[in-house]
Amino acid sequence: MMLSKIICINFDPSKYKNMLYQLEILNSKEKDLVLNAPTLVTILIAGADNQIDENEKAKAYKVVSVRAFSEKPDLKDIYGEISLDFDQQLDQIINTLPANKEERERIIVGLLSELSGVLSKLDLKFAKNLKTSLVSFAHRVANASGGVWGLNSVSDSEKEWLDLPMIVLPADNSSIE
């Protein structure tokens, strides 16, 4: 399965008149990758135990919706745009990806790895904020299901991906003259 087929679930630019200036330098594929990142993180974390349950999907939607109002200013608009049709995008991408856990993870990890190159084109502070936000998002999804009274709710298979090691931030060269 081609990786680009997954992110060809394009966001309609006419709906996103408040697109952040940080994303304006990106091409449409790169913008789609940034806007689909929370969806991909949801599927990676929720599907790590080979079962994406409704609690995890609902938690992801709730977090996206809340972050549209409460996230750092440079990320608020992104979450606002994503929240408009997050549940539909999530279902659409889930249905596009293979059911096999290993194949699905390979594709998502590949896509999220591509995000590293995209982040290198963006302002370093914005890139750091986005990565931090996505890691926090992953933790919220992981804690949505399982365990007893919320204890031990993160499975070992989810722990492998929680810090999103495939997304590498660009080097901070600000001290180089």
How can the largest sheet be summarized? none
Q: Look at the structure and give the mean pLDDT.
A: 84
Structural class: mainly alpha
- Which stretches are low in confidence, meaning pLDDT under 50 for 5 or more residues running? 14-19
Number of strands: 0
Q: Give the overall shape.
A: globular
Rg over CA atoms, rounded to whole Å, is 16 Å
Number of helices: 8
Q: How far apart are the termini?
A: 44 Å
Describe it.
The chain has 177 residues and is mainly α. It has one domain (35-159). Helix content is 59%, strand content 0%. The chain is globular and about 35 Å long.
Please render the helix and strand layout as text:
Layout lengths: L2 H5 L20 H19 L7 H17 L2 H11 L2 H11 L4 H19 L4 H19 L13 H4 L18
Summary tags:
177 residues; mainly alpha
Task: Briefly characterize the structure.
By secondary structure, this protein is an all-alpha fold. It has helices at 3-7, 28-46, 54-70, 73-83, 86-96, 101-119, 124-142, 156-159. The protein has one domain.
